[in-house]
Amino acid sequence: TMSFSLLLSLFLSLLLSIPLSILLPIPQTRQPSPFPSSPPHPLFHFHPPRNFMNDPNGLIYFNDRYHLFFQYNPNGNVWGNMSWGYATALDVPLLFEFQQVALPQRLNFHNDTEMIFSGSACVEVGEDDKEEIYLVYTGQWVGRQIQDQNLARMCMGDDGRIRSIEHLDDSETLCKEQCDAGANSPPAHMLQEQQTSSEITHSPPSYTTSSPTFQFLDNINPIIDEHMSDFRDPKMMQMPQYLREMTSLRHIMVLAVPLERRMRFYASKSHVTDKEAWHRLSEFVPEPGVLEGIVECPDLVYFGDRWSEQGINGKRIPVASTEAEDVHFDSDNSPAPSSPPYVLFFSIGTGYKYGSTVFYYVGTFNGTHFQSYHKQPRLVDHGPDFYAAVTFNNVPNGDILLQGWASNWIYANQVPTGEWRNMQSLARNVSLERSVNSKNGQADWHLVQQPVESLKRLRQLLLADYTNQLIAESEFHVTQGKYMDIECRLELLHEPVEIIMRSSPNERTVLGYDPKSRKLTLDRSLSGYLGYIPKDSELPLVFEATMDDNNTDPATLDVRIILDDGLVEVFANGGRITFSALIFPSIEESLGLTVHSSAPYMIGSMKVWGLDVMTKDTGTSAQDTRADRSQTIDIVD
């Protein structure tokens, strides 16, 4: 027999003859994707033609148009010179076109610079007994370090349409002065330090004789002043009719007290310009310890009949709204169906570990106080790029439309988009759902979100269509594209599945779902260029949410994905879960759409449309013109 020492010697000789690279795993390092070969060209997400944009402001429908105001720097592509930009869309809240600077930062009669911070808009009867748009905004006084609430108005013509510049009297001073009253860095509590090395400066877009005009109401401003340095973002709404009859209040306004993490309610029984009529009602303060960061951009929304009841069988049943009643609770301390629901939206900015995001509470409002049905606020969107979301006022048919800023304060000044910087999300049609857990019988409320219905009118070409198809291969190639609307329902066994978008050999954005853990993830770690995200940021590259177990089959993934150049928005589980994330593939060839799974699965249904719009004056594809905002865009049925 062979001795043990001889066996050991032979084994060692054999071991030494094997290359070390086979025995030891080589770390797989991936080189960062380079800067994109060309800047993104979003087709249906609004962005200004140049310069920096952040929060949506003054969202309102009036005179057959949707009006979008927004925080805007007319002079450069980083934060500063805070003014209100202005865009409009005809008939539907989609394909907004930039118009002009509406309310510029200015040097006022106090010889102090007023930055025009966030706010809202309402429709009121004006001086000539005709309806007009009034804008309420926060004035940030740079010298005095005070924030107060002020009014401006959109000037209208005799026919009730927006007035043109040539029709204005010299006495009607409009905000046409230069928007360069001095560059100011953002307050430290609002924004990470600017990296001005990346700044590109431009003059504001020029005005035309058909531009609408705006007037600061300095004879009455401010309408609310608490002599506070952090007190901002007024969102005004008309009091619901049943509460107006009970309280005689016409308007309600909610504001943020950011550093104290509270929201303050005001109301008025009179015209919006009657400053003496505005008075404080109450405050809503979240439970101690449940929030981090500063509170901004609150919005109180009455949902009326925009809610439904989901029964044990999972079917959604619309529930008609009732007249005002005292709030009462079921045995599980969730609201009874007869309680008229409200949602209090608010954003968490600087100080939040993920940069910035939007939360909501569901509760009731009795005309003076808001009471939440739950202690913990819920996320509106589980991705990194949805902030400062507020609803449109005065929407036809009572639809509730929510729109946010598709960026994050961690990197808002660095996103690689060229002359312009940052875009808005799609408008979302939102509703509420009250569901009952099939296991324990407990009830809860959930926000349900879907892309605005008019987006379907951009579907120009059906790229893929599958029904009840068994897929056995691990990598199923569906189609390719940059602008796509994807609807699919996948029926799984027990293994995870991945929907891979904007892919090439080295780049991909992945929506994954594990039916065992019920976790849904959006992974942009290989999506392309990531150099705009600071290396010391706590912001992850993979974002996750858990499907609730209220009557949802864990083996089914039901999802809609909207792809635009530079942004993906995901609506899963019937709209109960959403993700929004910026993605910047570094090469044009990153266009693939595939589905991957290690086990067979069934495509219950899957349709993929290519999205496009046509230019009105040329009849050509807007993709060919790279969404040139100087042309008029029509939605093609």
Essential attributes:
43% strand; single chain; mainly beta; globular; 4% helix; 41 strands; disordered N terminus; six-stranded antiparallel β-sheet; 637 residues; 3 helices
Number of strands: 41
Reported for the largest beta sheet, the result is: 7 strands, mixed
Q: What low-confidence regions span 5 or more consecutive residues with pLDDT below 50?
A: 1-30, 163-209, 311-337, 626-634
Strand-residue fraction? 35-45%
Structural class: mainly beta
Share of helix among residues?
Answer: under 10%
Gyration radius (Cα, Å) is 27 Å
What can you tell me about this protein's structure?
This protein is mainly beta and 637 residues long. 4% of the residues lie in helices and 43% in strands. It has three helices and 41 strands. Strands 16, 17, 22, 23, 25, 26 and 27 form a seven-stranded mixed β-sheet that branches. Strands 5, 6, 7, 8, 9 and 10 form a six-stranded antiparallel β-sheet that branches. The longest helix is centred in the N-terminal third of the chain and has 14 residues, at 4-17. The N and C termini lie far apart (87 Å). The model is unreliable at 1-30, 163-209, 311-337 and 626-634 (pLDDT under 50).
Topology:
Layout: H1 4-17, H2 20-23, E1 51-62, E2 65-73, E3 83-90, E4 97-103, E5 106-107, E6 113-125, E7 131-141, E8 146-154, E9 214-216, E10 224-228, E11 232-238, H3 241-247, E12 251-257, E13 262-268, E14 279-284, E15 295-302, E16 307-310, E17 316-318, E18 342-352, E19 355-365, E20 370-372, E21 378-379, E22 387-391, E23 401-406, E24 420-421, E25 423-424, E26 428-436, E27 443-451, E28 459-471, E29 475-480, E30 484-491, E31 497-504, E32 507-514, E33 519-523, E34 542-546, E35 556-564, E36 567-572, E37 577-582, E38 592-597, E39 601-611, E40 614-615, E41 633-634
Parallel strand pairs: 1-24, 16-26
Antiparallel strand pairs: 1-2, 2-3, 3-4, 5-6, 6-7, 7-8, 8-9, 8-10, 11-12, 12-13, 13-14, 15-18, 16-17, 18-19, 19-20, 19-21, 22-23, 23-25, 23-26, 26-27, 28-39, 29-38, 30-35, 30-39, 31-32, 31-38, 32-33, 33-34, 35-36, 36-37, 40-41
